[in-house]
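Q: I'm building a small set of examples for a reading group on sequence design. Run inverse folding on the following structure and report the sequence directly after it, with nothing in between.
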């Protein structure tokens, strides 16, 4: 019997190389939610795969995959250094894109990582195999890749191979997320993120970074609606005031916006019940972070 493995995988790459498509294929539609908004400084979970022998948590690392022409934005050292804390970093490109200065810059930055770096060349269905070889050779000189995996996220070619390679690099480890949250109810975390995204969208700058959302339960139905209880945690009383708003107007707005997205995600009517609670310095509280599903 092999030991259970688990770990964190950062998925990097320029827009449109197919990161979301790959996530959808690997994890399933429900879990691979992409936010159109710029994210906070925290790593954002893109998806979690739990099977009988491993749990893989895919993270999106904001601040790295910025548009090519915006080289200054790549200089986000904090984002790069967070890559030292993951188990595998994957740099994804598209087979029909030539290697460019943006790729070179980012790969040069990644060179100092201790983390194993995979190159995933997506969209191989779009090119001739000979051109794939040219691509691989062009990239190979730019970094010391632990693995190079060409695949097609839409067709599914070689996606299993990627999974096998990821697993072979993961350490033996625990399930970070309990089964009931991620196999039966992968929605818990994602629903929390959808609520947090609405807070991000509607409140002032200081608030979103101080906010965590924990979905307490989403098991019962009342009057044909799924009842979801969630708690929004903030650092300070003043932030609680902002999130609730005058006459609870802000909380209502957050609730309505989030409910729409949750209903679209789950495909059913939802009664979303939100509470706001002050939890001072929650970012320094490992138990709280684990419960909220954040790894830092
Ligand atoms: P992201 O910005 O990196 O998340 O990219 P998306 O997943 O949104 O994909 C961008 C576009 O590329 C979409 O139109 C996808 O359908 C397409 N795409 C993704 N993977 C493949 C692939 O393997 N082959 C082809 N032909 N198109 C793909
Ligand atoms: Mg995407
Ligand atoms: K959350």
């Amino acid at each position: 019997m092999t030991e259970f493995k688990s770990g964190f995988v950062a998925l990097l790459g320029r827009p449109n190389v197919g990161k979301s498509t790959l996530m959808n294929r690997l994890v399933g539609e429900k879990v691979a939610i992409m936010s159109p908004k710029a994210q906070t400084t925290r790593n954002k979970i893109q998806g979690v795969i739990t099977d009988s022998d491993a749990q893989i948590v895919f993270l999106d690392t904001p601040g790295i995959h910025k548009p090519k022409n915006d080289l200054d934005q790549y200089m986000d050292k904090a984002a790069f250094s967070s890559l030292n804390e993951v188990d595998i970093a994957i740099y994804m490109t598209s087979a029909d894109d030539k290697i460019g200065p943006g790729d070179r810059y980012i790969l040069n930055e990644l060179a100092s990582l201790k983390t194993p770096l995979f190159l995933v060349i997506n969209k191989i269905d779009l090119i001739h195999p000979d051109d794939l070889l040219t691509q691989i050779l062009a990239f190979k000189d730019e970094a010391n890749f632990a693995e190079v995996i060409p695949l097609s996220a839409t067709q599914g070619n070689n996606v299993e191979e990627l999974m096998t390679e990821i697993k072979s690099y993961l350490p033996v480890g625990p399930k970070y997320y309990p089964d009931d949250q991620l196999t039966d109810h992968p929605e818990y975390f994602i629903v929390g993120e959808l609520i947090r995204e609405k807070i991000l969208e509607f409140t002032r700058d200081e608030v979103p970074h101080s906010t965590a959302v924990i979905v307490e339960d989403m098991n019962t139905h009342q009057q044909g609606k799924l009842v979801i209880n969630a708690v929004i945690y903030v650092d300070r009383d003043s932030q609680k005031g902002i999130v609730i708003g005058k006459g609870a107007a802000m909380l209502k707005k957050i609730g309505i916006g989030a409910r729409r997205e949750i209903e679209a995600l789950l495909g059913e009517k939802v009664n979303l019940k939100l509470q706001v609670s002050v939890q001072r310095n929650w970012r320094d509280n490992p138990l709280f972070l684990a419960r909220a599903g954040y790894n830092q």
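The chain has ten helices and ten strands.
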